[in-house]
């Protein structure tokens, strides 16, 4: 019995040592900053549902940018973002525009589904029409967003040398096929800068066409993490976790073998990027303030999801200065 107990203790100790980040120093690299929808207007997450029109509950504006526009992407990169996330929708004329909602009523002066309109019709809309911070008493961006809905081609041409995360908002595999048609025409060097995530079916369709592109869907994330929980204690990285982008909610991250440093290092060895998102990962919560930033593990070198890169990029720089 004593021998068995001793063996058990040794095995448990070995597993601990093999997975403890306390015994693995951080890489020294600063966190990578991912700007969600560029630099846009933010809103409280309390009480939010899938049907909430977030444009109707924004905080009082602190900057002039609207999400998913060329200007907002440019502002995010200028503020310090390493990667910018954009949302795409398929149009009636079989093109891709950069816009979050399936329906037009929340943000714009249009009505109906995005996919029932042509690019020309969509670019005639005012995408700032519905934003209000005071329950509809004033609309600070009304009239300011006419013509600001870009096509994906415009965004990829304007930011050909920058990293982008493309979110396929639907569950339609056709959208994955259309995105693959376009991305397949890009130079290999630009394709390496792109990551695609979104619905299971469209992401699977794109990945089948372009297996070299880093991807993520809910199904892929669940498959990777379930297998990693089963075998990660050995130091192995399952095939399901390779060439992926993993969006890890901070609520669950501590339960992963080797979190944070060993986990990030293991994933990086297999071309997988780790992005830490705030809360439980339900509604794109980000690390958007000083208080949020203080919750990031010391020495963490993976990616960080933010809706206010303009506020947290200086905090990253302060942390690097202090470390030096």
What does this structure look like?
InterPro entries: GP_PDE_dom (IPR030395), PLC-like_Pdiesterase_TIM-brl (IPR017946). Residues 31-316 form the GP-PDE domain. Pfam families: GDPD (PF03009). The chain is α/β, with parallel strands linked by helices. The protein has a single domain (29-323), classed as Phosphatidylinositol (PI) phosphodiesterase (TIM Barrel). 32% of the residues lie in helices and 14% in strands. The chain contains eleven helices and nine strands. It has helices spanning 2-19, 70-79, 119-122, 152-158, 173-183, 188-191, 200-209, 218-231, 261-268, 290-293, 309-323; strands spanning 32-36, 83-90, 96-98, 163-168, 194-198, 214-217, 245-249, 273-277, 303-306. Strands 1, 2, 3, 4, 5, 6, 7, 8 and 9 form a nine-stranded mixed β-sheet that branches. Strand 1, helix 2 and strand 2 form a beta-alpha-beta unit. The longest helix has 18 residues, at 2-19. Mean pLDDT is 92; it is low at 2-18.
Q: Which helices and strands, and how do they pair?
A:
Elements: H1 2-19, E1 32-36, H2 70-79, E2 83-90, E3 96-98, H3 119-122, H4 152-158, E4 163-168, H5 173-183, H6 188-191, E5 194-198, H7 200-209, E6 214-217, H8 218-231, E7 245-249, H9 261-268, E8 273-277, H10 290-293, E9 303-306, H11 309-323
Parallel strand pairs: 1-2, 1-9, 2-4, 4-5, 5-6, 7-8, 8-9
Antiparallel strand pairs: 2-3
Helix pairs in contact: 5-7
GO molecular function, one term: phosphoric diester hydrolase activity
Protein name: Glycerophosphodiester phosphodiesterase
Organism: Natronosporangium hydrolyticum
